[in-house]
């Protein structure tokens, strides 16, 4: 987390979890966590360690909300993919769904989440036995439960049944660490329990150095999203309304750009975010330079990610086809989010000249759009030091959760319209009205796509959303942009990631593989 919020600490803890390679430990030198954590400062450090894998900073391996979800998940979708600067063969294969259970990013997402869960479990197990202020003690445990719920929520959505580990595993014997997969329904039940229990002991807001930590509102908001994912429409509606009408003070920024600028971080729309800080020991957001065109004097850009281009009929284009359609062109011309989410050119800070790139040289001004949400205007070169936070859940998400669940439960009621139209109004769009349930559903799906582009949400939405017949939209969405591999293999194969083969072979022989990935 940011230095001013939650200082980075390096905590040496044996990572003997289901996601780790075989350990070679000397039992005589092993120190259990119960003996290591003794003071209030130790308790704070334990929880801070559980936060740290949300981002990880620029000087470590990619972490979930610091590019790993982009290269390991969203590149697979229909909005973004690897640009010319993304040379990793494993990433490029995964982006067209040509990957296997041995894929590096598949393994990294699994391992990093279980490493974070281990840290959360250590905090949950040890902090109650440490003697210090009772209110702070409960709050720290609640923060760890919130984080454990978030990490498991990511895992169960991506991998399905996953090992549910709720206590620190202290054994040094590999056989003791091997845990079979737990049914997804049981994992979801634990997530609900953790979030409900966490909310009871978390404050509504923080001040000073604690701003950015999990709050009661964050726990309840994430719980609404969990219910939506489980298609528990009534509970999703009730929970979302409790957040919308609750004592948390959440609201939309009038200016969409304020959602992403470091100057307005942790504001009224930010419910929970991965925290980044520029120019401070590698605590920056790595995503910013990956989205910048390379070769610009005074800027460090790798152009490692770009929009997915695909062909659509267009009578105004040569041969009646627009070969460079993308998410960028889905935005209405008057949508204020378009010019915040994308740029089509960059100004060099050293030459003051403008640089961009055309899609098609035969079409005037048909410029390539570049993602722009994590650009930090306070950092001249935008090396791996952007201070832009990554929103994990924000208030517009809760509004759209409410709109979607209310529509599924009762059709497009006045309440559902109120929630979606709040988001549209901020974007400068007209209110929706007069839609049937299926049309309203599609409107919410599109609104989510435009509102949260490049925020690590699209893949989760693709595997969750359904059409009017109850069928998933993943295959059709990917086929539309030319990702034909989605139709290969077993039906529904790509709705789940494969269980990392390395985990099955080297770490946990009790794991089984997902259908279609054998």
Top CATH class of the domain at 35-202 and 484-517: Mainly Alpha
Distinct helical segment count: 18
Ranges where pLDDT stays below 50 over 5 or more residues in a row are 1-30
User: What is the residue-mean pLDDT, rounded to a whole number?
Assistant: 90
* Helical/strand content category: mainly alpha
Strand percent estimate: 5-15%
Which topology of the domain at 35-202 and 484-517 does CATH recognise? Serine Threonine Protein Phosphatase 5, Tetratricopeptide repeat
> What order do the helices and strands follow?
HHHEHHHHHHHEHEEEHEEEEEHHHHHH
Radius of gyration computed on alpha carbons? 23 Å
**Residue share in helix:** 25-40%
What's the count of strands?
Answer: 10
What would CATH call the architecture of the domain at 35-202 and 484-517?
Alpha Horseshoe
Instruction: Tell me the major beta sheet.
Output: 2 strands, antiparallel
Judging from the principal axes of the Cα atoms, what is the shape? globular
Q: Give the strand order of the largest sheet, numbering strands 1, 2, ... along the chain.
A: 1-3
C-alpha termini separation: 39 Å
Keywords: Cell outer membrane, Membrane, Signal
InterPro entries: SusD-like_N, SusD_RagB_dom, TPR-like_helical_dom_sf
Protein name: Starch-binding associating with outer membrane
Domain RagB/SusD: 268-517
């Amino acid at each position: 987390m940011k230095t001013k919020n939650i200082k980075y600490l390096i905590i040496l803890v044996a990572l003997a979890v289901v996601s780790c390679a075989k350990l070679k430990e000397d039992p005589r030198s092993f120190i259990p966590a119960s003996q290591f954590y003794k003071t209030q400062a130790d308790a704070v450090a334990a929880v801070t360690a559980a936060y740290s894998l949300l981002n990880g900073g620029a000087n470590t391996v990619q972490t979930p909300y610091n590019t790993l979800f982009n290269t390991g998940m969203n590149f697979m979708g229909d909005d973004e993919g690897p640009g010319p600067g993304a040379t990793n063969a494993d990433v490029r294969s995964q982006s067209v769904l040509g990957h296997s259970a041995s894929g590096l990013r598949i393994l990294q997402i699994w391992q990093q989440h279980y490493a974070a869960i281990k840290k959360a479990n250590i905090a949950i197990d040890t902090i109650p036995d440490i003697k210090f202020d009772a209110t702070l003690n409960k709050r720290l445990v609640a923060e760890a439960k919130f984080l454990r719920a978030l990490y498991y929520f990511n895992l169960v959505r991506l991998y399905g049944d996953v090992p549910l580990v709720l206590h620190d595993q202290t054994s040094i014997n590999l056989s003791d660490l091997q845990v079979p997969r737990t049914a997804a329904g049981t994992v979801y039940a634990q997530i609900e329990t953790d979030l409900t229990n966490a909310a009871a002991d978390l404050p509504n807001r923080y001040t000073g150095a604690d701003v950015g930590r999990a709050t009661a509102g964050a726990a309840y908001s994430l719980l609404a999203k969990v219910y939506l994912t489980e298609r528990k429409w009534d509970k999703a509606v009730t929970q979302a309304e409790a957040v919308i009408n609750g004592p948390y003070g959440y609201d939309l920024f009038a200016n969409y750009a304020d959602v992403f600028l470091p100057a307005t971080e942790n504001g009224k729309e930010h419910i929970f975010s991965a925290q980044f800080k520029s120019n401070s020991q590698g605590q920056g957001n790595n995503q910013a330079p990956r989205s910048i065109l390379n070769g610009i004097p005074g800027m460090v850009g790798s152009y490692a990610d770009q929009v997915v281009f695909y062909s659509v009929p267009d009578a105004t284009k040569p041969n009646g086809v627009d070969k460079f359609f993308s998410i960028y062109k889905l935005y209405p011309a008057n949508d204020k989010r378009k010019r915040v989410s994308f740029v089509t050119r960059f100004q060099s800070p050293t030459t003051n000249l403008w640089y961009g790139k055309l899609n098609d040289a035969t079409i005037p001004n048909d410029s390539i759009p570049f993602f722009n949400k994590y650009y930090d205007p306070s950092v001249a070169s935008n090396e791996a030091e952007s201070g832009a936070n990554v929103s994990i859940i924000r208030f517009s998400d809760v509004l759209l959760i409410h709109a979607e669940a209310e529509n599924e439960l009762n059709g497009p009621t006045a309440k559902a319209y109120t929630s979606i139209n709040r988001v549209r109004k901020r974007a400068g769009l007209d209110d929706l009205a007069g839609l049937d349930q299926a049309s309203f559903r599609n409107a919410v799906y599109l609104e989510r796509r435009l509102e949260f582009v490049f925020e690590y949400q699209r893949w989760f939405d693709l595997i969750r959303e359904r059409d009017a017949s109850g069928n998933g939209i993943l295959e059709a969405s990917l086929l539309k942009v030319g990702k034909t591999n989605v139709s290969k293999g077993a039906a529904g194969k790509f709705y789940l990631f494969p269980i990392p083969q390395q985990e099955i072979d080297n770490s946990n022989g009790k794991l089984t593989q997902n259908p279609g990935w054998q």
